[in-house]
Amino acid sequence: MNKRLTYTNIFLLVMLGLYLFANLYVSVVIMVYPDMPQQVVWMNTATYLIGFGLPCVVYAFILKNSFRQPLRETFSFRKLPFSTVLLSILLGLLIQPVNSLIAQLASLVFQDITSLSVTSMTGMPLLYLIFAMAVLPAVFEEILCRGVLFDGHKDAPVWYQLVIPGVFFGLLHMNFQQISYALPMGIFLGYVLYITGSIYSTMIIHFVMNGSQVTIAWLYENLGWFDGSTLFDKIFLTCMGSSDLLWVNACAAGVAAALIVLILLALRKIHCHRQKPPRILRPGWHKGAYIMYIILGLFFLLALLMEAAIPLLQPYM
Q: What value does the mean pLDDT take over residues 305-316?
C-alpha cells in the first residue's frame, strides 16, 4: 500500500470534519450577529486556523517523524526568482477574465452567492476585507491543496497530481457556481506549482486574483469607482467579468488565455532545471486513493445541499 497517499487521504478526511465544524460555527455566528461585519473576519480566521492551519501543521510533523521529510519539502517552501514573482502577479490578473467568463456561463444555470457574500461585506474597511477574502485563502488553501495534497500525491502520475487536488480545491468551495471556475483554477495552480516547484508562486496568483476582485467590489460600493460611467470603467469591468456582454467577455478571456500560455512557457524556460526525465511509477501507487474518492463524493453531496439551501441562506448574505 502507498503509505504516503493513505496518510494524506486519512488526514483530509479528519480535516473535512474540522472544516465543516468550523464553517457551521461561523455560519451560526453570522446569523446571530448579522450587524457585525468585522466579526466575520475573526470567525473566518478561526475557520482557516482550525480547519486548515492546525491539521496541516500536525500532518507535516507526522511526515517529519515518519518519513524524515522536512517541513520545507512538504509545503514546497522554495525561493522564487524576481522574474517568477512578476510573472505570477501577471497570471493572477490575467486569469480574471477567464474565471469571469466561466462564472458568467455557470450563473445561467447555478445561483451566484459569491457576489452576494462579497457585497454584504463591503461595509467593513478595505484592509479587513482583503485579509479575510484574499490573504487567508491564499495562504491556507494553498498550504492545503498545493502543499499537503500535492505532496501526498508525489508518487502518482503527473496528470493525477494535477487533477485530484484540482477537483478537491474546486469542490471545497461547496457551491456549483464557484466550483465551475475553482476546479479548473485548482488544476491550473497545480501546474504552476509543478513548473516552479514553489508554493509561493501559487500563493501570489491566488492573492492577486482574490484581492483584485474584492478591492474592485469595495471601491464600487463605497467610492463609486468602476460604475460603468466612463469608457475606462466599461473596459475594466468587462475584463473583470462585470459586463453583461457575453461575447465581449469571451474575447477578453481569449486574449488573456493566449497571454497565460506565453507566460507559462516563459516560466518553464526560467525553471528548466525542474524538467526531469519520466520516472518509473511505484507499484501500488494508487492504493489508498479510494479514501479521496469518498471525500470528493461527500463534498459533492454537500454542494448539492448548499445549492438547495441557497434560497434559505440569502436573507443572511
A: 69
In terms of phi and psi (left: phi > 0; alpha: psi -120 to 50; beta: otherwise), the region of 19 is alpha
Summarised one tens digit per residue, pLDDT across range 200-225 is 999 999 999 999 888 887 887 777 66
**Residue 85 one-letter amino acid:** V
- What's the Rg (C-alpha) of the chain? 20
Give the cell for residue 184: 479548473
pLDDT at 221: 72
Region of 282 on the Ramachandran plot (φ > 0 left; ψ -120 to 50 alpha; else beta): beta
CA distance linking residue 267 with residue 86, whole number of Å: 11
- DSSP helix/strand/coil, 263: helix
Q: How many CA atoms lie within 13 A of 70 on its CB side?
A: 5
- Whole-angstrom Cα distance, residue 182 to residue 198? 20
- 208 with 93: CB under 8 angstroms? yes
Reported pTM: 0.87
Task: Answer yes or no: are the C-beta atoms of 6 and 288 closer than 8 Å.
Answer: yes
- DSSP of 135-187: IHIIIIIHIIIIIIHHHHTTTS-HHHHHHHHHHHHHHTT-SHHHHHHHHHHHH
Neighbours of 277 (CB within 10 A): 4
| Number of neighbours of residue 222 by Cβ within 10 angstroms | 12
Q: Per residue in 101-129, is it b (16+ CB within 10 Å) or e — as a string?
A: bbbbbbeeebbebbeebbebbbebeeebb
